Amino acid sequence: MLLKRIITALAIFIAITSIITLSYADMWQPYEFEPKNQRYEYKITTFQEGIEKVSTYVLDMEKRESGQMDVSVKTTWTAEEDELDQQILGGWWAAGAFGLTMAFINPMYAAFFGGLDMHVGNKMSFFGAGVVEVAGTEKIAGRTGFVCVLRNQDAGPVLGRYVVDPQVPLPLKTELYEEDGTKQYETELQHIEF
Question: Which domain, by its residues, includes 151?
């Protein structure tokens, strides 16, 4: 009888430990890069006043022998002749008065996503700031990620749609919307190395 209880308790302990381990393995930690060589290439599209603008964004990180990281960023876009003034020094994103970080994920929401267990059907509310639901999976640039839909309330309009892979510190894809459903921005991973 005692042996049966010990075996049952041990089985329960192993099951709970496995669930906790799996849960943490499937949590996404945005913007937490590992100190290793890595490269991310994105296509970024903005939709403003019926005009689509496309740019590319490349983030390269290379580890030195000292352990420090060399980090380089390259943004490429097409500018009109009348846009060739001081704003070009800050890049297209500066000219658009829009922080690049926001194109990936609003820093205010990044902390919320860090606590969200990535399994389809999971839903989390953030104290009136929004509701995120893991709605499915999608393949982007050869990687499968979880589709996370952000609304300001359960039945509210979609404000953002993020495809995240717990192994990648940036979203594989983001789509940001106005409250009326108009798409503002879209980022999509084209290539990754790490």
Answer: 2-193
